[in-house]
Amino acid sequence: MLNPLPPPGPKVAAEPSAPLGGWFRRRVTGPLLVLLQQGLAPETLALTVALGVAAGLVPFLGAITTVAGVLALRLRLNMAAIQLISHLMTPLQLLLLVPLLRQGARLLGNAQEQSLSLTQVRHLFAEDWRAALHLLWRAELGALVLWLLASVPLVLVLYAVLKPLFRRLAANRGTGRA
């Protein structure tokens, strides 16, 4: 004979979700502080975060992981930290994508930078797909040039700001290698 199902237990109220600050502390700040405690130099962590931010803003969908991975391997940076930071930049990357494509098209001599709206691109693909690909190729190439030009000062500023901050955090935790 089959055993009947046990009676239902008391209803447990769902735990309230943690505020955003708790999530950020647990998922971003905490792992970075652990890296400092494990002996990662504050300068290296500052460079990792600065390059992760720049890699996360690359105006080419799907390239974040590759760009961040190549940077981490080439410069011997912490792969997990640079991937974490670069992927946190995805919402900002998506916000900047269309303006960078429009400016990239303008940079490379396209007089129709306003034709980068979704309806215009669809229409162009329906009428002349080669012209649409040419337009998008030039816009993407121009956007990458603008990203490269903007990422150099961005990395320099972030590194200059984060290096003393991470040194101070490491000193407060007694883990810094100054």
List the helices and strands and how they pair.
Blueprint: H1 20-37, H2 42-56, H3 64-75, H4 79-88, H5 90-107, H6 118-127, H7 129-173
How would you portray this structure in words?
This protein is mostly helical. It contains 7 helices and no strands. Helix 2 runs antiparallel to helix 3 and helix 5 packs across helix 7. The radius of gyration is 23 Å and the shape is elongated. The protein starts with 19 loop residues before the first helix and ends in a 5-residue tail after the last helix. The model has no long low-confidence stretch (mean pLDDT 81).
Briefly characterize the structure.
The chain is an all-alpha fold.
Overview features:
single chain, 178 residues, mainly alpha, 72% helix
**How many DSSP E strands?**
0
The number of helical runs is 7
Catalogue the unreliable spans.
none
Q: Radius of gyration from the CA trace?
A: 23 Å
Shape: elongated
Helical percentage: over 70%
Average pLDDT rating: 81
- How is the main sheet built? none
Class from helix and strand fractions = mainly alpha
Series of secondary-structure elements, N-terminal to C-terminal: HHHHHHH
Beta-strand proportion = under 5%
Gap between N and C termini: 72 Å
